Amino acid sequence: MAVQRVKLALIDLSGTLHVDDQPTVGAVEALKRLRQHGVQVKFVTNTTKESVGSLYDRLRKIGFELQRDEIYGSLGAAAEYVRRNNLNPYYLLTDDARTDMPPNDPERALDSVVVGLAPERFCYEHLNEAFRVLHQRSVKQEVQLVAVHEGRYYKAKDGIALGPGCFVKGLEYSTGVPAVCIGKPNEYFFRSALPDGIDVAECVMIGDDPNDDCLGAMRIGMKGYLVETGKYQPEKYTDEDRPAVSGIFPTFSDVVQHIISSSAEQ
Question: pLDDT tens digit string along 154-171?
Answer without folding.
Answer: 888 888 899 999 999 999
